[in-house]
Amino acid sequence: MKLKIVNLIFCLLTFTVVIGQSNDADKMLNKAIYQEVVNGELQKAIEMYEMIVKDFPNERMVVAKALYRNAFANEKLGLKTASSLYQKIISNYADQTEMVNLSKKRLKSLTGALANHAKKGLSVEKIFSFEDGLYGMMSNNGKYLTHTDWGDANLYYIDIATKERFPVTTNGAWKKPMKYADFAIWSPKDDKIAYAFYDGTSGYSLNIWDKATKTTSAVLKVESAAEFVWPMDWSKDGRYIVTISGNRKSLKFGLLDLSTQKHKTFNEFNRETHRLLDNSPSISPDGKYILYSTLGSNGSQDIFAISTESGIVKTILYHVANEGGQIWKKDGKSFLFVSDRSGAPALYKHKFEKGNIIGEPELIYQGVTKSFSAHVSNSSGLIFSNSSNYADIYTADVNLENGTTSNISEFQQQAKGLYHPVWSNTGNYISYTSRKANAPREEDQLTIRELATGTNKIIDLGTGIEFHGMNSLWSPDDKKIALESQKQNIIVVDIEKETVDVFKNIGATVTFGPDNSIISSKRREPNLIKVNLETKKQTTLFEGEAGWDYSGLKTSPDNKNICFFELDVTTPKRLSKFDLTTGKYELLLEPGKDQAFARMELISLPNDNDHIIFGLVQLDKDGNPLKAELYKINIHTKEKEKFGVVNENFKDPREYDFSRKLDKIVFKKAKNIDTIWLLK
Fold first, then answer.
1. Which of 155, 168, 178 is nearest to 225 (CA)?
2. What are the backbone dihedrals phi and psi of residue 71, each rounded to the nearest 5 degrees, phi first?
3. Model-level pTM?
4. Which of 80, 118, 375, 569 lies deepest, with the highest CB count within 10 Å?
5. CB count in 10 Å sphere of residue 21
C-alpha cells in the first residue's frame, strides 16, 4: 500500500482502527460459532451473529460468514427465516463468492428440508453437553450415558439430569501391567452395561455389569493378547451382542449369543484397505441383519448389510456422497442414516424389507454433523449426539531451566480441528492448520499470524490433502511451510504467492534442505530423498539400515546437517545425523534401559549449528514414565549435558513449539465437546 507523506499519520491511525475492528469481528464470529457448534446454544449464537451484522457493517467477509452461520443455526431449529438469510447473502454480498456459493447450495436443498420440518412439527432440544469428550453411548431411555474416563482408566455411567456419575469399574490403572475400560453399550432395558476391558497380563475381555446388583461377569475373552474385542450393539430381545474384534491388521464383525456364550464371527476386513470409518454397527430388531458403514469401492463412505444367518455382505447404499451413522427404527421396517448428499450432513430415513432398500431415502432433519451417533428413544423421539473439536492457542515466555511459563496470552480462540502450532525461524510468525469453519465438507486452511501486527493470513489448502501437521515446519527464510500428509504426500505452501504444491508419495516426514529443496523419508523405507522444489527432481542422499523408520527430520541453520530419530516400529530408539556436505551418517545417541526419548521429536537445533536440544523420559522399573527432561548434545563430539526440564503440561509435540531462541513457547489447549440433542 502506497501512502502520501502528508496523510501518513492519519492513514496509519485509520489502518490501526480498521485492523482492530477486523480482529474484533473475527473474535466475535469465532465465539458465536463456538456457542452454536460446541455449546449447542443456538439462540445465543443467533443473537451474536445478528450483533456482528449490526456492529461491523464494513467487514463484509465476516458479516457474510455471520449471516451464513445465522442461517444455518435457524435451519437447525427448522425456522423459515433461514431461507431469507441465505437469499440476503446471495443478493447483497456478491463479492463474497464462497459464502454466495454455499448459500445457493443450502437454499437449493433447504426447500424440502424446511417443508419437511414444518410438516412433521420437528424441533430439537439440547439435553446435555459433555466438555471433556464423551467416550461411550446413550441409554435407550435417554437418561444415562456410559463414559470411559481416560484419566483413571475406569468406566462410569452418568445421570444426564443430575450430571452425577457412578463407577462401573474401579480397577483401572495406567502403570504396568495396564488395566483400562474400553467402549461400552447399554442393554435394551438399560439395566445392564456391556463393556470391553483390557488387562496387561491377559488381554481383552467382554464383560457385563448389572446395574441393580453392581456385579460383573466376563462373557468373552480373546485368544491372544494382541487381539481386542468391543461391544457395539445389543439386540432388541437382549440375546445377542454385536462385536468388533481383531488385531492391528484385520477386523471382523461378530455376534455373541448370551444364552450359549458362543461367538460367531463374519467376514474379515483388512484394516488398511477396508477401514471402518464408522464403528457403530446396528442390528435389526429381528436380529437378521447388521448395518455398518465403511469405505466403498467409489472411495466414499457407503452402508452395507451383513446377514447374520449366512454372513453374506451386501451393499445397501452406494453413493458419491458419504453415508453413515446408521440406526434401525424400532419397527425394523426402516433405518435412519446421515448423508452429505445435499451438500451438508443431514438425517435421512430409508425403507428396508427382506435384505433390500425400498424406494428413495426421505429427508428427516437438516442440522446434524458427520460425527453422529444416535438411539431411537423408548418414548420421546430420536436422541443423537454431535462431536466438536476445538482448540485455543496461547503464547508465553518459557524458562527451560525450571520449566516455568509466564506472560501467557491468548491470540486465537476456538479454532476448529486445530493442528500443531509452529513458530517461524525468525520468531516473527506463528502458523497453524485448522478446519474451515464454514465449509460443507472437511476442508483445511493454513493460518499465518504476524505477531507484530496481530494480523492473520489465511491460505486455503483445499480438500483431500489429509495432512496431519505432526512435523510441519518453516523454511529457513520464513517464505515457505512444509506439511506432512497421511498418505506420504508432502505439501509445500509458498506464503507470498499463496500457492499449494503437493509432492505425492515422497515421504512421511520432511525438512527443508539447501538449494531450494526439501528432504524427506518414506515410512518403512529408511532413506533420505532430496527433492528440488522447482524442477521436482528427486535424488537419494542416503540409504539407511532396513527395519527402521525416520522421524522428526530437522536441518541445522547452516544447512550442513540433518538430525533425526530412528524408530523401531513406533518408539524412537536412537538419535542420528547426516552430514549434507560429506554424505556421512553418524549415530549420536542410544538411550539406556531406564530412558526413552520423550514424545517431543527434536525440540530445536539452535543457531550455533553445533547442538541439538531433545527430551528424555526417565522410566521406572516397569517402564512407566516418571519425568521428562531436556538435554543438549554436541553433534560433533557427542557430549551430552542436561539442559532443562519440561513442564508436565507440555509433553506432546502436537500441542506446542518453541521459538528458535528457546525463550518462548506457543501451545494449544484442545477441547473435545459432545452435545446430546433430542429430536422430537
1. 178
2. -60, -40
3. 0.66
4. 375
5. 15
Return mean pLDDT, the chain: 81
Q: Which of 280, 267, 326, 274 is nearest to 299 (CA)?
A: 274
| DSSP letter for each residue of 101-142 | HHHHHHHHHHHHHHHHHHHHT--EEEEEEETT---S-B-TTS
Find cell 529443496 and name the residue: 517
Query: pLDDT class for 371, splitting at 50, 70, 90?
Result: low
Backbone angles phi, psi at 80, to 5 degrees: -70, -15
CA distance 659 to 499: 25
Positive or negative, the CA dihedral 154, 155, 159, 163 is: positive
DSSP per-residue codes, 428-477: SEEEEEEE-TT-SS--EEEEEEETTTTEEEEEEEESS--B--TT-EE-TT
Give the tens place of pLDDT for each residue, 579-631.
999 999 999 988 776 676 765 556 677 788 898 888 877 766 666 666 777 88
Q: What mean pLDDT comes out for the span 361-390?
A: 67
Phi, psi angles (nearest 5°) of residue 582: -95, -15
- pLDDT by residue (tens digit) across 106-145? 776 665 554 555 445 566 677 777 766 678 888 888 888 8
3-state helix, strand, coil in the chain (%, to 5): 15, 50, 35
Taking the C-alpha atoms of residue 254 and residue 243, their distance in angstroms, rounded to an integer, is: 5
Q: How far is CA 504 from the centre of its chain?
A: 23
- Other C-beta atoms closer than 10 Å to the C-beta of 20 total 11
Q: How far apart (Å, rounded) are the C-alpha atoms in residues 543 and 578?
A: 11
Supply 5's cell numbers: 507523506
> Is 570 exposed, middle or buried, given 0-12, 13-18 or 19+ CB atoms closer than 10 A?
exposed
pLDDT score at 401? 79
Distances (CA, A) of 233 to 194, 382, 633: 9, 17, 53
Q: Compute the chain's Rg from CA coordinates.
A: 27
Q: C-alpha angle 93/97/100, rounded to 5°? A: 60
Q: Mind giving me the DSSP string for 299-357? A: SSEEEEEEETTT--EEEEE--SS-EEEEEE-TTSSEEEEEE-TTSS-EEEEEEEETTEE
The residue written with cell numbers 490433502 in the block is: 465
Which string of b and e fits 468-477 if b means at least 16 CB within 10 Å?
Answer: ebbbbbbbbe
371 contacts: CB under 8 Å, gap ≥ 6: 386, 387, 388
Cα separation, 191 vs 158, in Å, equals 14
CB 135 within 8 Å of CB 148: yes
**CA distances to 75, 341, 418, 462, 607 from 466, in Å:** 30, 21, 13, 10, 32
Residues 6+ apart with CB under 8 A from 626: 617, 618, 619, 620
What's the pLDDT at 608? 84
Q: What is the dihedral of CA 632, 638, 639, 642, to 10 degrees?
A: 20
CB < 8 Å & 24+ apart, contacts of 297-301? 301/277
* DSSP H or E segment with residue 16: helix 8-33
What count of other Cβ atoms lies within 10 Å of the Cβ of residue 241? 25
Q: Are 585 and 543 in contact (CB under 8 A)?
A: no
284: helix, coil or strand? coil
Please state the length of the chain: 680
Question: Please, what are the domains in the chain?
Answer: 5-120 (1.25.40), 136-274 (2.120.10.30), 275-380 (2.120.10.30), 389-674 (2.120.10.30)
Indicate the pairing of strand 656-658 with strand 517-522: unpaired
**Residue for grid cell 455398518:** 292
